[in-house]
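ok so I'm stuck.
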Amino acid sequence: MLKLGEKQTLEIMKKVEFGVYLKHPDDATGEERVLLPIKQVPQGVAIGDKLEVFLYKDSKDRLIATTNTPLLMMNEVKVLKVAQVGKMGAFLDWGLEKDLFLPFREQTRKVKDGEECLVALYIDKSSRLCATMKVYHHLSLNSPYKKDDRVEGVVYEISENFGAFVAVDNQYSGLIPKKDFFGNVKVGDKISARIVAVKEDGKLDLSIREKALAQILIDAEKVLEVIDSFDGALPFNDKANPEVIKRELQMSKNEFKKAVGHLLKSGKIEITEKSIRLK
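replied:
not stuck anymore, here's the structure
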């Protein structure tokens, strides 16, 4: 059986002026065949020889073989560069003559010429290979990581209900839960994170924050910087609305209160009814 989007070893069944026709070795009749264009045919091959090829569709939507290896194949997730954006979607450079189509409906953010995006490969309703930025179901659940390991990843989707979805090492399924998701992280960002839990199904819960004590010190420094930007007097205190705190400091109210408590204890600030001031 010929497999679209995969590399497989096929057998030369016929030579023609413009290339060779290949079939699966188990196909006795050669009823299902694919053309390998002449410029791709290695010198000195004969009928019955086997070649490893990748199958995709050409600009006329015909199944075609190539001896080149694309940058992305089925069951993989890779970062590809946007060659250009058209009326129906974007076209990605994946190392073959025909660029890979990324429909607008498969984009988790609008991409631009020259940008890079994390994608997987799928076969659409017209039996054509396309790219998708919705890689959730293409990621592996068998990571080698454990709790407290540091990892790198790419944010591929942000959900108001769940948090930020991350492709760890571009291949493992990770999530920064909503309760821990603060800051200006957006789709496409590369992040460094700490694994806070490995779920029973293999999914990774992540945090871009440090462990408690270390994070309090980091947050305290940030609070001082923000107070300084307000000329030494923050126009709200630790009883402020959580949305105000998130907007101004990109942290939760609980994290803010811990940082403020640390600064108060160390004598660096004072709290009034309506503000926090530097001492």
